[in-house]
Design brief:
Strand 6 and strand 7 form a beta hairpin. The two termini are 32 Å apart. Helices cover 5% and strands 61% of the residues. It has a 31-stranded antiparallel sheet that branches. The radius of gyration is 26 Å and the shape is globular. By secondary structure, it is mainly beta.
Length: 516
């Protein structure tokens, strides 16, 4: 962008709405005008934001963005929500986002709907749309838009301990390139949850019906009729035991648990080759997938299964404050039959054993947190996933993070970041983010900041990947923040908060543990 200056101008128009103007000068691109309008009304709020650059000298065209995010409570059980986004071209996020987030966004997503929730039910009527935000792709790569979608989930105690419910969805799919169609998905179920102080047993029976009304062109492509359907029974039994004992470690009292768990799943095979793939993909194999009744997202595929999950967990809970100091889990699926349902490009789920899934977390002190995830495939004697992360909370709101992430044939990365207070006002920050898989630095950051009750000054240097070709760029960011009023210069606080987990200490309680 060259020399980049953005000057917020805040206008307090009324007690319940305001306007912030954001003129911005980029010497290599030109002048950009931006504005953000916010409002508060009874039971709701919203933000309308937009930018406009009449002539981008690097792209030789005008550039703009428009977004609207809002919610409005309609009744105690119903709420309307909107998240609408539009960009002028597929390079916008890459050119105007100075982080890796801009490179990872391949679409601009918009959704609007009315959502309801009550005791034992939730429902909604929504619509969503995707816009291309990656110039290296074509619109053929876009997901199908859902225009509209209606869904309901309901459960109720039927008699005694017996529970029953239904999950239902009706969707009309649209696409800029491909023929589409409509889909209805119904899944009624009954369950008899039994439990005691040290055990639980949850047998569940369900029936899933999925039917379509396809456009003629899509039906011809799939080689079937315009109304394919599928019906399958789903039987599962989830059972577990809970053992605990009091123990003492280094003079401190703990409650130690051992929690074995079994999950049996039986789903008969149904031919689904004449059914489309609108919004369905295989889920990433993880601990949670050991206990799911389908390995796919979306309703276009229901996997056949005859399998048993064996899992074991243990925890160490400090009795003085209830904090979990240590936890570990280990599990594996035994496939009694080969799964015949799969989508193009997906490997066969063969008879035998799945990869072992292991997760562990350890907090030796109130300041240290260490976690690890590991997946080992015994069939091929190989590591599918490995992740190690550690965080140390320094005094005066400092933090140090180190992480290693590996996923076979996809990525291998090292990430180190820190915020180190030199004095109550001065601190240094840094990050080193490197891809071992590509032998390339993804981001390097180093800076210094001075922070007081009313003013903060930050100077940060960065070297980072700035486009989809993987080219590196250098940036020197300087910001003066008048707390409660605004700031001049680049938004270094936002960049540091994204790069350093725990830069804002509250983020440690909002962000889940990082995994590969």
């Amino acid at each position: 962008n060259g020399f980049d200056w953005r000057q917020p101008i805040y206008l307090n128009l009324a007690p319940n709405y305001d306007l912030t103007l954001n003129p911005r000068v980029m010497t290599s691109r030109g002048v950009q005008l931006g504005a953000q309008f916010r409002y508060l009304v009874e039971g709701g709020q919203g933000t309308l934001e937009g930018t406009w650059m009449p002539d981008d000298k690097l792209r030789d065209r005008d550039r703009s963005l428009l977004s609207y995010e809002a919610f409005q409570n309609l009744t105690p059980h119903w709420q309307a929500r909107a998240d609408l986004n539009w960009i002028s071209d597929s390079r916008y996020f890459e050119d105007f986002n100075n982080s890796l987030d801009g490179l990872s966004q391949t679409t601009a997503y918009s959704a609007i709907g009315v959502y309801g929730r009550g005791q034992g039910w939730d429902a909604g009527v929504t619509a969503d749309h995707w816009q291309l935000a990656d110039f290296t792709l074509t619109e053929a790569a876009l997901p199908f838009s859902r225009l509209p979608r209606a869904y309901v989930n309901w459960e109720q105690r039927l008699a005694g301990l017996l529970l029953g419910g239904i999950s239902a969805e009706a969707v009309r799919f649209e696409h800029e390139v491909y023929d589409a169609g409509s889909r209805i998905d119904l899944k009624p179920w009954i369950s008899l949850p039994l439990e005691g102080d040290s055990w639980f047993l949850r047998p569940t029976a369900a029936y899933r019906y999925t039917g379509y009304s396809l456009d003629r062109g899509l039906a011809q492509t799939l080689g079937g009729g315009s109304s394919p359907s599928r019906g399958q029974s789903i039987l599962s039994v989830d059972a577990g035991l809970f053992f605990d004992r009091d123990t003492t470690v280094k003079g401190k009292d703990y409650l130690q648990t051992i929690e074995p768990r079994l999950f049996y799943l039986n789903v008969p095979y149904a031919d689904q080759n004449d059914m489309p793939l609108f919004d369905t993909q295989p889920l990433t194999f993880s601990w949670g997938q050991l206990f799911r009744d389908n390995r796919y997202s979306g309703a276009d595929r229901q996997a056949d299964a005859h399998q048993l999950t064996l899992a074991m967990s243990t925890r160490m809970i400090r009795q003085s404050d209830g904090r979990e100091r240590f936890s570990a889990s280990l599990g594996q699926i035994r496939y009694f039959d080969e799964s015949r349902v799969r989508i193009p490009g997906e490997p066969i789920t063969e008879k035998g054993r799945s990869a072992w899934v292991a997760d562990a977390n350890y907090a030796p002190t109130d300041r240290w947190t260490i976690g690890a995830s590991y997946q080992w495939d015994p069939k091929f004697s190989r590591t599918d996933l490995a992740s190690v992360r550690a965080r140390y909370l320094l005094p005066e709101d400092g933090v140090f993070n180190v992480g290693y992430r590996y996923r076979r044939s996809l990525l291998e990365q090292v990430d180190v970041s820190f915020l180190y207070p030199v004095s109550p006002s001065w601190s240094v920050v840094g990050r080193y983010y490197y891809s071992l898989y590509d032998n390339k630095t993804l981001e390097t950051m180093a800076g210094v900041q001075w922070d007081s009750c009313c003013v903060a000054v930050r100077l940060v240097g960065r070297r980072y990947v700035h486009n989809r070709a993987g080219d590196l760029s250098n940036a020197l960011m300087f910001e003066i923040e008048l707390k409660g009023l605004g700031s001049a210069g680049q938004d270094t606080r936002r960049a540091l908060r994204r790069a350093i987990l725990g830069y804002n200490r509250d983020d440690l309680y909002l962000v889940p543990p990082q995994t590969a």
